[in-house]
Design a protein that fits this description.
The structure is a homodimer.
Chain A (H helix, E strand, L loop, with lengths): L10 H22 L1 H4 L2 H8 L3 H7 L3 H21 L12 H12 L2 H12 L6 H24 L6 H20 L7 H24 L5
The structure holds a DNA duplex.
DNA sequence: TTTCATACATATCGATTAGTATGTAAATTT
DNA sequence: AAATTTACATACTAATCGATATGTATGAAA
């Protein structure tokens, strides 16, 4: 009651708000019931509006899905950029990095993106657009981040490759969520990932004369 | 014409044959159009029969899906047991093992199982049964295989844990298929996986007094 | 304050879904 | 070979999908 939204809102505010509520509802549904289960009726119900409102803001369901891709990608970028994984001394510990990546790319919210990628695979029109969107995101988000976190004189290609592998492993781990694994299972495998990568990076550093 | 099937077949033969054709068609569709896209009409069409025949052999679609789980699990076990990954001298090379696991668990056919796991996630009745089926399979297939390939006096728990991690990574890698990555991408990451694990296992062996 | 555009709701559409009812042909039993 | 069961096909049903058509309420412009 104290922070009740002003009763009289401008049109653009209402639109933006409703659009975000719809996108948020779609994201939730994508990772709870999957792409096929995320129907327009369910999205509208979850958003507290009708399908009429949904189709007013997103003329087609595909359009809404791209809204989800845009929003989720942006949120993931923000969370990736939040560099709370750096310890106070500025040193990057592998175990912290793994935890950070897990929090970002192991998050159920991120899975919504993959639901769209996988769910549209046989759609000749939609899938190529989804894949392109994905490539763009990786290029504008991940690569700059990588260049900022690896020095020029590193064995950078190797390190970048290992980083890509880390994301792959984390994605594979997130699949296990669907098998109702407990938290210890995830922590154990994250620890293994950190150990494997840490050991490898040490070796790479030893062979790198610039150090 | 030479090996044309005998025109007059027994009922059980006809049944078994049609059931297998249906299951095969379902598996193909599961990894090409996904769980939701695998409709009874499509399955029947692909199998060259009608939906009437489908429902005669599998009274419900769920039943057919469990037929898929049974068959695919069995096939994966056979392929896992085919120990062509052992080099002639009997020594197990990590890179060969990784390739072997990739051929089995990175195969599109195997993804059909995961389509069912993920696709049924919000089905309160079906999903628990699917998860149970999965656990049974892992227990009766993977664990015996692991015990056969690790010696008692090894640091077995560590090795088993690393093995589980390998499967997770391979699963994550197989997801990238949906992004139209080229073959080099997969090979590069399989090589990284083999390097990481190989290096780790060497360290474990050094600390193991039994060697 | 009147006019108009925007933001929604309601009602309904054709298409598609899993499943059923019923018919016919093939195989087995008697 | 007649009777019966099994293996399918055809036709249909209720439910649900994304989408549209049309109405009403709300905010912006005049």
């Amino acid at each position: 009651m104290s922070v009740a939204p002003s009763r009289r809102r401008t049109q653009v505010d209402r639109s933006a708000e409703t659009r975000m509520i719809l996108i948020g509802a779609a994201i939730e549904l994508l990772h709870t019931v999957g792409f096929a289960g995320t129907t327009t009726a369910l999205i509208a119900k979850r958003a507290g509006v009708t399908t009429g409102a949904l189709h007013h803001h997103f003329s087609t369901k595909d359009e809404l899905m791209f809204g989800v891709l845009d929003h989720a990608s942006e949120r993931m970028r923000d969370r990736l950029e939040a560099e709370e994984h750096l310890s106070p001394d500025g040193v990057l510990h592998i175990s912290d990095l793994v935890q950070h990546l897990w929090q970002v790319y192991g998050d159920p919210e991120y899975w919504a993106i993959w639901e769209i990628i996988i769910g549209t695979r046989s759609d000749g029109v939609l899938h190529p657009r989804v894949v392109t969107h994905r490539l763009d995101t990786m290029r504008t988000v991940l690569h700059p981040w990588l260049e900022r976190h690896t020095s020029e004189n590193d064995a950078r290609p190797d390190i970048v490759a290992i980083f890509e592998f880390m994301l792959i492993a984390i994605r594979g781990l997130s699949l296990e969520r669907f098998l109702d694994k407990d938290e210890a299972y995830f922590e154990r495998n994250l620890k293994i990932l950190a150990e494997l990568v840490g050991q490898r990076l040490e070796t790479l550093a030893q062979h790198d004369f610039s150090r």
